[in-house]
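If you are new to this repository, start here. Below is one unmodified record pulled from the training split, so you can see the exact layout before writing a loader.
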Amino acid sequence: MTITTNLKQLYETDDSVWLEETIKLLKQKQFDQLDVENLIEELISLGKRDLAKVKSLLRQIIIHILLLQYWQTEYERNHRHWLGEIKTFRYDLNNHLTTNLSNKLQDDLENIYQSAVDFVQVKTDLTVFPEKCPYTLAQLLDDNYLP
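And here is the target side for that same chain:
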């Protein structure tokens, strides 16, 4: 039984040990010993998780900006909470953002905005939101920007 076969079996039983062994092989440049199929699967999954995370953080920023900007009946009671949420989500997003992920957010900004609007409409029963995203990605990421 080869190391690759053992790695494939290990992947099915203990993926954290599989990962440790895969990292060792990569560091030792023993590429012929890698479980390439599962390594590709993990890398694809990692990319999807990272993208989903930054999209979710951006959606939360937009949701809280919309609440802050449009939900006047709750403004006095909740605006400090919304400001805190915006600050926290921006911090987290900026810490996870890469050039590639930033480009993907830019490409999907309208869809992310629409999902945020859908949420806020359900929460507030308001229908006053712009049809297209009125914010640039740079504004949404800028800790000093508020509409």
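Two things worth knowing about this chain: Residues 36-70 form the longest helix (35 residues). The radius of gyration is 21 Å.
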